[in-house]
Amino acid sequence: MQRRDFLKTSGAIAGGLSAPLLAPAVRAATPAPRAVAVAVQADQPRGKLNPIWRFFGADEPNYATMKDGKKLLGELGELSPKNVYFRTHNLLTSGDGTPALKWGSTGAYKEDAAGNPVYDWTILDGIFDAYLERGVRPYAQIGFMPKEMSTKPEPYQHKWTPKAKYDEIYTGWAYPPKDYKKWAELVYQWVTHCVQKYGKAEVETWYWETWNEPNIAYWRGTPEEFRKLHDYAIDAVRRALPTARVGGPDTAGHGGPWGRNFLEHCVRGKNYATGGVGTPIDFVSFHAKGSPQFVDGHVRLGIADQLRTIAQGFAQVASFSELKNKPIVIGESDPDGCAACQGRQLGYRNTTMYSSYTAASFARKHDLAAKHGVNLEGALTWAFEFEGQPYFAGFRVLATNGLDLPVMNVFRMFAKMGGKRVAAESDGAIPLDKIVRDGVRGEPDVAALASRDGDRVCVLVWHYHDDDVPGATAEVTLTVTGLPEKAEAAKLTQYRIDETHSNSHTAWLKMGSPAQPTPEQYAALEKAGHLERIGEVETVRPAGGKMTYKISLPRQAVALIVIEPT
């Protein structure tokens, strides 16, 4: 994740980040409702709705093999079996597999007394097995540097905590190899092992990329040394599996001149490993983060920062004719830069602010890809879970101690959508250029994303604002046209994420924020964390392929309307 300067506060524990923001005592009187009209034209396709949401990741690989990690992986896999991908750091880092914040290890590489390589895939296999057994596939990050191979091996494992300086994480794992041929052989042996264990057809579906954010301190070598590291790694992957999907460079931000030089090298530079021209690149990846603040006693998110980075990244890729049609994966795409950090400005994470931001930002990623004419394949959410931490501790996660946060339910909503994107307009939406430039600082963003798969129409509606302050409820009138004209009736289902629906955090607060919930409390919280339907499935009666439906959508809420003609 991108390097940021974070405000550290002692209140960032056990839900203390967000509980004060939810307390009724600090909420002012709610303004009068705001009328919003949303019009969906179900017979006006806007191209395929790519499931860009199906990518996730984390710093710590070893949590995937633990109790709550396995549970969450299973839930991710259920969203779209064998179509969900997971990216993680530290897959080649030396160590015994004991996890810690911003740390992980597999001990895949050692050397004997004579300096000969010794490979051990036990821990790595356990991680990939945990994915694959639950319908999740690897987005395999080739890194970091094993201790015996590092040009500066000591100190190696850091002891970082959220109160430490971020720079303390950059230890021996971040340095170039002493021998690039040994590095290449490690990668070759790893991919060869994966093909033998999981089969060629399976490994062909994975993504392979080198390192993480090599344009900042995650890489302690020069840009030229990284290009050499990358060339040797990609050549090794392709020697082991010529049909492997390879790419990169997963830069911090869009990469700027560093990223442009890297792409130029891949397109037409001299390959350090082969001596030929260019380096294979099947997909392009970069990162994009928002910029939250704590101002005037509340959290203010920075959606514009993230969207501007994405726009700049798309423009850079599109400037290469050889790359414009290549798939793009935004390899980390989040409201802030550090999942394991804590602080007042990160108090949005347990709340519906995270879920509404996610809905609003993902829709604009689709819009930006269309504007720049690029092939957006994925936007990876860098959030998973932290085993053994207090409940609702303020980390950027999808679940806490096995309880799903509100944001997890946005992905459940996304998973219900599919087929073609169809036209959706809202008179409460912030125009794309304005939200990229200014964010959402005046009127809130009440907008929609719609899809059609056969006769099934889904409409995602959100009510987002950068500031976590009270606001008027949006009284949304949804009009859908272009439904089958012969359909006399349709089933309508509404799902909701707000303060009282699909929200384990507010349920926990109402219980008195128990540090150790009883079995009965835990079961109730587990249920509260799942996507909740509003009321019963309704029957609506379109006339001439047109129907109207009204919903009241509170600030920072998200709704999914599913219409199925019968």
UniProtKB/TrEMBL annotation:
GO terms for biological process: carbohydrate metabolic process. Keywords: Glycosidase, Hydrolase. It is an enzyme of class 3 (hydrolase). One of its GO terms (molecular function) is xylan 1,4-beta-xylosidase activity. Residues 37-528 form the Glycosyl hydrolases family 39 N-terminal catalytic domain. The keyword Hydrolase applies. InterPro entries: GH, GH39_cat, Glyco_hydro_39, Glycosyl_Hydrolase_39, TAT_signal. The active site is at E213. It comes from the Bacteria. Its EC number is 3.2.1.37. Belongs to the glycosyl hydrolase 39 family. This is GH39-retaining beta-xylosidase. It comes from Limnoglobus roseus. The gene is xynB_2.
